Amino acid sequence: MHAVTIDRPQRTTERRPTFAEAAEATLDDVFGYLLYLARDRETAEDLTSATYEKALRQWHRFDPVRGHPRAWLLGIARTTALDWFRAEKRRRRREEIAAVPERIEEPFAEGLSPALEAALAELSAGEREVIALRVVLDLDGDAAGRVLGISATAVSTRLSRALQRLEEKVTADDLR
Amino acid sequence: MTSAEILAELRASRPAAPAALRARVDAIATVEPRRSWAQPPRDRLARALAGRRTLWVALPAAAVLAVASAGAIGLVEGGSRDGDVLATGAREATQESAKVGQDAITAAPATGAAGAVESAPAPTPGRAQRVSATLTVKVRDTDALSGATQEALDVTRSLGGYVVSVSYATAEDGSASLLLRVPTEAVQDAITRLSSLGTIVAQQVQIDDLQEQIDQLGRRVTALRTQIARLSAQLADPDLSREQRATLTARRAAARDELAAVTAERGARTSEAALATVQLTLLTEQGAAAPPVPSRIDRALDEAGRILAWEAAIALYAIVVAGPLVLFLAVLWWGQRMLARRADERLLEAS
């Protein structure tokens, strides 16, 4: 008979990174997420810049114990993007009255095949964002759920539907 | 293209921020904190108190505060009653010391009893008053109880009164209860003599003035008699019509009935004033043993318990009153949040 000592799990004391460190570590993720949402590189760059400006103002609210800076910054990026979508919707409504809007489709992500690029463009922003978070940025279900404000199960369901639609679109394009 | 290939391609083509954007963000991030919002992170305590975690601190703190304040008030209030308790103890000691000098309980009135009798209010001579006295007298043992009971009966009869009821029991804590009626003018003497049966424990004398009522009833009797005489004189008139006679006869009958009732009422009041009621309780030493004086800790605990009960009642009241309002606001907030989320979802689906 022997005794086994099990160390009591201790709460990890996360070192609070500086804002510059957090920005450096998360920039690609935030930009990638916003790129998938907005489907426009310039817009994504502007939104990324706006996200970090907003994040700097709210940096004192960030609590490293509650999560990684990436999820926190992606949450701010989502709010910023939603504001932009609202403004864009209003702008389009105004432009529709004056003239037919013209949108120039440009490839938004480097390295994607044209078929996949076209299929992604046909998805909604909501579908693209869940693909971006779970597949491209490889966030786990809980982290993605925190960013989207839904449960991990709902994230999984939403991802499954989005991927199914994406596959359908890609297959349909291949058949043309 | 299979789904695995799609996933692989998506992962492989992970976007990277362009250098220009990196420079812009670096410029933002390297701005040194100059304003309050960019100050260094708050200390752990401040952060612990932030948000929902505040409740985890505030609720136990409120509970501790409630218990501590109840305990403090209990200690203060319990301590302040020491004076009262000491005074009570002193009175008991005085009575005990008075008793020490007595060989027989019935021999002479105890010092305390004599003082109490002297301070008891006496009925006002010449006025009709209802006098009620309640006496509790402590005797030495059951033998003394028997003697004192008999003595009380003798005293009552000697003063011209009578015994309404007697209840006498000698089991364990012996006691006797007597309801006596004595002439009001002799009630002071009765109290003095009954008090001398032992050591007086409690005494209460109540005097209600009946003279005003009796005078009013007397005036009413005179008025009714005058009215009856006048009606009788009117009825003697032979010229009265049949109806007039019937009316006057009815009024006289009513006046006579009322006279009878008022006269009886006045008689009852007068009788009530003639005899005083004395409720005498005789107890043995065991039966009259005073309850133990609670210790300071017991009193403090009692007081703290009382304060806590009050605090709980106030908290419950606040919950009952504010609860529905808080619930309504919470539902409103939740509903608004859900609507905003749904609107965001629709916006993203449409984009």
List keywords for this structure.
heterodimer, A: 176 residues, mainly alpha, Rna Polymerase Sigma Factor, Chain: A, Arc Repressor Mutant, subunit A, 2 domains, 7 helices, 0% strand, globular, disordered N terminus, B: 351 residues, alpha+beta, five-stranded mixed β-sheet, 5 strands, 63% helix, elongated
Characterization of this structure:
- The complex is a heterodimer of chains A (176) and B (351).
- Chain A is built from 7 helices and no strands.
- Chain A has 176 residues and is mostly helical.
- Chain A folds into 2 domains: 17-106, Rna Polymerase Sigma Factor, Chain: A (Orthogonal Bundle), CATH 1.10.1740.10; 111-176, Winged helix-like DNA-binding domain superfamily/Winged helix DNA-binding domain (Arc Repressor Mutant, subunit A, Orthogonal Bundle), CATH 1.10.10.
- Chain B is an alpha+beta fold.
- Chain B has 11 helices and 5 strands; from the N terminus they run ααααααβαββαβααβα.
- In chain B, helix 4 (53-80) packs antiparallel against helix 11, helix 6 (111-119) packs antiparallel against helix 8 (187-195) and helix 9 packs antiparallel against helix 10 (242-274).
- The radius of gyration of chain B is 44 Å and the shape is elongated.
- At the A-B interface, helix 1, helix 2, helix 3, helix 5 and helix 7 of A face helix 1, helix 2 and helix 11 of B.
User: What value does the Rg of chain A take, in angstroms?
Assistant: 20 Å
Count, helices of chain B:
11
Assign the structural class of chain A, choosing from mainly alpha, mainly beta, alpha/beta, alpha+beta, or little secondary structure.
Answer: mainly alpha
Give the topology string of chain B: H per helix, E per strand.
Answer: HHHHHHEHEEHEHHEH
- At the first level of CATH, what is the class of the largest domain in chain A? Mainly Alpha
- C-alpha end-to-end distance of chain A: 72 Å
Question: How many DSSP-defined strands of chain B?
Answer: 5
Chain oligomer state:
heterodimer
What can be said about the biggest beta sheet of chain B? 5 strands, mixed
Low-confidence stretches of chain B: 34-41, 83-114
Number of helices of chain A: 7
CATH architecture tag of the largest domain in chain A: Orthogonal Bundle
Poorly predicted segments of chain A? 1-12
Question: What is the CA-atom radius of gyration of chain B, in angstroms?
Answer: 44 Å
Task: Provide the residue-averaged pLDDT of chain B.
Answer: 79
